[in-house]
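Q: Given only this backbone (71 positions), what sequence would you predict?
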């Protein structure tokens, strides 16, 4: 069964944030590394995306839902 564990890379070693079960002792594992972004970095990227894809509507703009279905 797959296990997800956070770890920190220090001095050439991956240091796990929690211990694994005793039955895993001595076994080999395949490891997939996914760099964890901080919440602040994710927020910053989100707001940059929003700023790039936003625009100001004219003050007289009014959304007309019925207009969508006219054809």
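A: Predicted residues:
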């Amino acid at each position: 069964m797959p296990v997800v564990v956070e770890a920190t890379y220090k001095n050439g070693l991956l240091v796990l944030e929690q211990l694994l079960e005793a039955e895993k002792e001595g076994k080999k594992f395949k490891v997939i590394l996914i760099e964890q972004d901080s919440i602040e970095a994710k927020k910053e990227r989100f707001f940059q995306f929003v700023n790039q894809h936003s625009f100001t509507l004219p003050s007289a703009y009014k959304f007309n839902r019925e207009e969508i279905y006219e054809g």
